[in-house]
Design goal:
The protein is of the alpha+beta class. It has 2 helices and 3 strands. Helix 1 packs across helix 2.
Amino acid sequence: MSDKHTPGPWVVDTTVALGPYHIITQSEDVPQSRCVVCAFPEWRRKPSPEADRPRLEADAQLIAAAPDLLEACRDALSKIDPFVHDVETIEAAIAKAEG
């Protein structure tokens, strides 16, 4: 099954001048631009962005973990007996990630 998303691993890059929470890929298969999510529009919102920093940081970490979480779900689904365990939640998560 081929993925349509940018290959992982993804990491949070806080060094980018355009904004504090960019998600970049560390995949060598992605030429030049490594940016997956290049901005959090809410960051530009008023009042002070400092109030939003903990939530935005947590959001960025969750987004960066997405390829690993999808792979973990696929791996778990391949190892779980659907006649013994409820796999609907895992299947739904995979379907949501795959669009």
